[in-house]
Design brief:
Layout (H helix, E strand, L loop, with lengths): L7 E9 L2 E3 L2 E4 L4 E8 L8 E4 L4 E4 L5 E7 L4 E7 L7 E5 L1
Parallel strand pairs: 1-4, 3-9
Antiparallel strand pairs: 1-2, 4-7, 5-6, 5-8, 8-9
Amino acid sequence: FSCPESEKQVVEVSVTEKGFEPSTITVNPDHAVKLKITRKTDLTCSKSIQIPDKKVNRMLPLNQMVVINLGHLKKGEIKFGCGMNMMDGGKIIVN
């Protein structure tokens, strides 16, 4: 089952020398969430992203957008970070 694009929340995230930007994302539980992530640096360990609560672990090729459909999220907080858990990641706040 997929939602029409008009019912999705699309969030663009960049991976830079500073980490994930933005590192805090706030979304609404009423709409499906789609992350568009682009890694813009080779200077960090963030060559992949993991979202343990959603069982997501995806490679992030340099300067290529990776789209991750998370679907509808329950209220609360979902953490994400680099594949090796070495750098501060971020969180998705669903409220």
